[in-house]
C-alpha cells in the first residue's frame, strides 16, 4: 500500500486552508485538511489516481498522482477562489459533519448583502432579530420557537471570543455583536440545536461561530449617507501585501480596519447614536509546523433611545407612533478585546490549537419599562451597569487515527472562562441617580472539557459521539433591597454546580448528492449568579434535550435543500417580565418544528433562496390555554432574488416575514407579525463600487420589538389605576429608509 500527504493553500496568499475536502476520484470516503492545511490519505492502492480537492468558494482541483507501494508521496495543492456555482457545492462536510448548514451558509454569505452587525446575525437561517433601544443595545433574538431575549439560548462567538455575557446587568446571555465590523467577517458556521460538543453554555437553540478574514484582497475606503442623518465611514488597510514580512519569511498577512457610525434614526426625539469600531489582525506561519494569529479590537458606543411605547398612548394621541414616554432612555457601552491563537503540528499527525483571550467590557443602560407604575412622582427609570474583565483559555488536540480499516477523528478540548464584574441597578430620573436597588461584585468561572469522536463505520455511514462536562462557580458579594422590609440587605454567597452533556449524531451519504442525518444531544444554559445566590433559580444549569432528523440534498445540480424535523425539551424556561425588567423561571417547555432552506441558481448570475421555519412550543406545567411561550414565533420566512456578477451590476430583492404570536401566557395579548421588502443595488469595478440600499420598500407600519407590559401613565385624559394597565408595548420598526454608499479599492 502507499500513502499521500500534503497541504492545500490559497493560490494568492499562500495561507494554508483548513477544512478542504480531499479524496481520490471515483472512490468513496476521503479526508479534510486540518487547522494547518495538511491532509493524509493512507492505504492507497499503488498506481495512477486523480486527487480531487474541493472547498466552498474555491475552484475544484483534479490533480494526477501516482502512488508507489511502500512510499509516501508529498505534494502541495494551490486552489483559487471562484465565482459561486451551486453545481459545484457539495452536501457533505468531512471535516465537521455536524455543520450540516455549511453549504447554505456559504451561499448566503456570498449572496446576501451585509451592511451592519445586525445583518450578520440574520445570515443564520431562520433567525430573526429586534432592536428596541436606539441601536446601541444587543438585539432580541428569535430562533426555533425561542424568544432568546438577548442570547439566553443562542451562543455567539467571534474568532473564538465569546460574545454572550454571563450574569449580565441587563439579562442572562446578553450578546452584543456590535463590536464586529461586517466587512471583516469571512466565515459563518451555524449549528442548530445542542448537538456539537465544543459549545456549552447558551447553545440550546443553537450557536453561531463567526470568523474574521485572515487577509484582505485589497485595501478599501467606504462612505455611506442615508436618511435620518445617517453617516458611516469605513477604512480597511492591508499592511503587508504579498511581498513584505513581519515575523517570518513564510506566508503572513496583517491588516487594520476601523468604522464610525452616526444616526439620529427615525424617532421624534433624535437618538444621537454614535459608534466607533477598530481592529487589527495578524496571521502568519512562524515555521512549517506553527502558525500564529494575533487580534486586537476596540468598540465604543453611546446613544439615546425612545424605548417601548404603550399602544394606548399612540391611540389616544398622547404621542405619535415614533414618540416616547421617557426620551431620556439610552446608554453607553464599550468593549476592548485581545486574543492570541497558536496552532502547532505535533507527532502522530496531531494538531494542537491554543487560544488565550481577554476582554474589558463596560455597560450602562437607562431604561423605563413601567413609567409611573411604582413611583408616581419620579417615575420608574433604572440604570443597569456592568464593569467587567473577562479572561479565557481554550485548547483542542485533534488527531486522525485508524480503528481497524476505518478512520477515526478525535478531538479533545479543554477551556476555562473567568468573569470578574461589578454590577449595579439604580433608580434614576432623567439619568440622575435617586437610590441604589442592588450592587455587588461578581466572580463566575466555567471550566470545561469535552471529547469528540467521529468514526467512519462504512464508506457511507459516519457516527459522531461526544461528551462534554462543565463545572461552574457562582460567587456574588453585594447588597440588594429587601423586598419585604424595603431596606438594603446583604446579598452574598458561593455556589458550585456541574453539568455533563452527551451527544450522538449519525450521517449517511446515500448518494454524492444526498446526505441524511439523525442527531441527538443534551445542552444547557446557565442562570444568573444573583438569582442562584438568592435561591430564586433552584435549577442552576437547566438541561435541554434535543433531537432531529433531516437531510441536505441536491435534487438538481443547481438546487441545494436542507430540511430538518426537530424537537427540544428545556428543563427550565427563562421568560422576560416587562413590569420588573427581569427574567423569571416558568418551568419546563417542549418545542418541535420543521426547518426548510432552499437555494437555487436560476441562471449563471441569478439566484433564488427561501427559508421556512415552523415552530410549536408550550409550557408543560401551565394549565391549558395559559401555557403559551410569550413572544415565541410559530412561523417565520425569509427569501429573495439576487443578481450577482463578478463585476458590473448586482442587486437583491429580499423579504422578511414573521407571523402573529402570543405576547403573554394566555394569548390575550398578541404580538403583531409583519412582511417587509428590502432592496440592494451596486455597481462594482476593480477600483471602486457605488451602491444603494432601501429598507421597508413598501413603507409598512410594523412593530419591531413587542412586549406585554403592565404600565401606568400620568397626564392622561382619564387617570389610570394604581395597578396600571397590561397591554402591548412596542418599538416601531424602520419606515422606508434609503442609503447610498461609495467604496474605493486600492
From TrEMBL:
Top-rank taxon, per record: Bacteria
Chief location of this protein within or outside the cell: membrane
Membrane as UniProt keyword: yes
GO cellular component: cell outer membrane
Domain TonB-dependent receptor-like beta-barrel: from-to ranges: 317-697
Compartmental location: Cell outer membrane
Biological process annotations from GO: siderophore transmembrane transport
UniProt cross-references to InterPro entries, sorted A to Z: Beta-barrel_TonB (IPR000531), Beta-barrel_TonB_sf (IPR036942), CarboxyPept-like_regulatory (IPR008969), Plug_dom (IPR012910), Plug_dom_sf (IPR037066), TonB-dep_rcpt-like (IPR039426)
TM stretches of this protein: none
Domain TonB-dependent receptor plug: 109-207
Pfam families xref list: CarbopepD_reg_2 (PF13715), Plug (PF07715), TonB_dep_Rec_b-barrel (PF00593)
Alphabetical UniProt keywords: Cell outer membrane, Membrane, Receptor, TonB box, Transmembrane, Transmembrane beta strand, Transport
Membrane topology classification: Multi-pass membrane protein
Any one Gene Ontology molecular-function term assigned to this protein's record: siderophore uptake transmembrane transporter activity
PANTHER family in UniProt: BLL6948 PROTEIN, TONB-DEPENDENT OUTER MEMBRANE RECEPTOR
Family: Belongs to the TonB-dependent receptor family.
Identification of the protein by name: TonB-dependent receptor
